[in-house]
Amino acid sequence: MDEAENTPTRERGACALVLSGGGARAAYQVGVLLAIARLQPQQETNPFPIICGTSAGAINAAGLASKASSFQEAVRHLARSWLELTPDRIYHAGVFSLAKSAAHWIVSMLAGGLGKHNPRSLLDNAPLREMLSGLVDFDGIARSIDEGALLALSITASGYTSGQSVSFYQAAPHLPDGWQRASRIGLRARIDVEHLMASSAIPLVFPAARINREYFGDGSVRQIAPLSPAIHLGARKMLVVGVAPQAEPPREKVSEYPSLAQVAGHLLNSVFLDAMEADLERVQRVNKTINLLAPEVLAEHRTELRPIEVLTIAPSRPLERLVMPHRKRFPPGLRFLLSGLGAFRRQGSVLSSYLLFHGDYVRQLIRLGYRDAMARRTELVRFLAD
């Protein structure tokens, strides 16, 4: 894999943690991290010198990186923050706020977009900015790097003007100064709240965030190689924590036309899940190819290809099934809107599972993540010990 080009040899054994996007579903990742914290000796610091996150996974990644010198403390802080969540800490979703937003959209469409200020998103996520300021100690990221507990933190966002997938990364000075591939680049930066607001800005749902000269949205959009930042930063092995179920759902015969919520959920799944699965398959193919080549052949051609050990932990059951008992936790106005879209029917619940930032639902996701990780305890212990 050409991602290794210019990577210092002494860092190529580094272990990376890759956290995918998924809105509220990213609470599942916290459960996995709690299991890892339990399996780690108390005196151990951060087992993942390279941490990469996208969308809501970027928030978890930044929270870990800011306290990397004490991995257990960082994970506990993340868990407490998720369990204390309510929707109003992420977005304004009162009846008045939603009615105002809906009216703005309707008027703008009827006016043919000629209004002075066209709508930017369905929901206003201004409360998220304040929540992130309390969750992440952004100065702590630099301290973690200076103390040697962290090599790099990468946060990926999608540029609306350039169309590029941009991985902003804060890293030790000796790591590479950026990279560029087709439709994706890496830029060294000091990570702050704007990077997290951009990476987690689900298209149409949340407004874009401006970084330097461009507006950015959710990092999962057009991210064709989610594992690429970790490889560029020198990872030799990766733990990937996703939010897609391990088993493919069975094909069923249906008679009902898909609801708007089902279509929206399908689109969100394609944004958050498909690229990760495709990239994992690509890494596995490259690993098999390398294993077929004799070491002297690789040496003769001076190739930068190297095997990447990957361990993936994913939900053992569909996360949308967990959201149904908690639908009354949505604010009344948003619950009314989602109900009209069909988001509380069995086939439309995927949309709800991305938007329910509430402690009761989060608790179930964390429990599932913890159980799934502990069920693979032997693999995890070996992976972390090597």
Largest sheet: 10 strands, mixed
Mean pLDDT comes to 85
Question: What string, H for helix and E for strand, traces the elements in order?
Answer: EHEHHHHHEEEEHEEHEHHHEHHHHH
Please state the overall shape, judged from the principal axes of the Cα atoms: globular
Distance between the termini: 22 Å
Computed Rg: 21 Å
Portion of residues within helices: 40-55%
How many E-type strands?
10
Secondary-structure-based class equals alpha/beta
The low-pLDDT segments are 1-12
Helical segment tally?
A: 16
Proportion of beta-strand residues: 5-15%
Chain-wise SSE layout:
Blueprint: E1 14-19, H1 27-39, E2 50-54, H2 56-66, H3 71-83, H4 95-110, H5 126-135, H6 138-146, E3 152-159, E4 165-171, E5 179-181, E6 184-188, H7 193-199, E7 209-211, E8 214-217, H8 228-232, E9 235-241, H9 260-272, H10 274-292, H11 295-301, E10 309-313, H12 320-323, H13 332-341, H14 349-355, H15 359-374, H16 377-385
Parallel strand pairs: 1-2, 1-9, 2-3, 4-6, 9-10
Antiparallel strand pairs: 3-4, 3-8, 5-6, 7-8
Helix pairs in contact: 1-3, 1-15, 2-3, 5-7, 9-14
